[in-house]
Fold each of these.
Amino acid sequence: LEQTDIYIRATRSDGDSLAVREALALGTAVIASDCTVRPHGVRIFQSGCITSLASAMQQALEDPKVKQPMQQTNYGTLILNLYAQVSKSPL
């Protein structure tokens, strides 16, 4: 992901993709289908529409902000902290 200009996630169904978040954190442009809610910074294209995908790719390649890492929330730390709080709670 670090050595690519664009990461494309073309799916018809998806969850919160770790690869999408990794690419954003590395500063790689991310283009993903509109099948679910995506993190801030992801360019969205209409699922199944090649014209929409091509347009998003062109915009990403022309964007001077490409390769500038984005700050992402560390959900791993948040979850571990929550587990620690719950394990200390009385039943």
Amino acid sequence: MRPWLVVDCYVEQPGSGAGNFLPHLIDREAVVAQAVRVPLPEDPNRFGGVVITGSAAGVNDGLDWVDGLVEFVRQAVTDRVPVLGVCFGHQ
């Protein structure tokens, strides 16, 4: 079973957003990527699904990490990898 990717987009306290979702992935291994600090994995197909957290940032803020996230999500959707975006993540 492939792990899920939790993309933590919190800019206020990077890394803290994943804690809201990890307890709900009880039967799954999860990998956390802090989108604000490090590049996302290149291949979304490595994951059974992707969860994108909330953020104080907006998708139209012109931030480099947001642009990379948008491309990652587009690839995941094209590849039919399940994606759940919450708050910022659904923008």
Amino acid sequence: MSAIYESDKVLSEYLLFHFGTADEILPPGRSWPAGMLEALDFAKRTPAHFTSGNVSRGLDLGCAVGRSAFEMSATCDEVIGIDFSHAFIRAAEALRNGESLAYERREEASISTRLQAHAGKDIDGSKLRFLQGDAMDLPEELGSFDRVHAANLLCRLPEPKRLLERLPSLVNPGGELVLATPCTWLEEFTPLENWPVGGTFEWLQQMLTPAFSLQRRAEEPFLIRETARKFQWTTSLVTVWRREAQG
């Protein structure tokens, strides 16, 4: 797995991505394109694809610095967030404990702005746990869940098929799975022989059926700010699945 997610630079970008306000990401005073504004709050929008109502257990795979797991905790009695990055998990745990994290928003060259990330006063940290781990090799003692969320993870795994094959045992019958992926397959993360043959959506259908039935699909844009003038604008394919009793 790539070490880039351990760097201070990427940690700061993800703290801003997950917890930055609209004005912190796109400061007022400039005419930002509407598409950039619509791409904010991605980590809040993907867990919103779960059916409304409360459940017992939720799992956020590839949780990064934790925003989606925090959102899931509003409707789950327990949420576990897992990420391969030690830096991301340390940050998520600190936020869970009510700490504010200082980080640098890079403007250009050596110029940066000091910002603070915090989870919010309405978060019940006792409902959350964050663990460093490998989504391709999850421990059996994790058990199963009513909701499993994995956003922008699949195309960053060396062997994504291993996770897909594990999912039926992770999701309880009748439970829901939300997968989001920008389908940006790169050899630096996933060897060519482990890419989907054909389109990612068709591959997911093949891999997840009949254990899961597709409920709906959508596109969700997201925006990662690198500097004051450079942003990553991307759209992620979101698929929502229901775990069948058989399969």
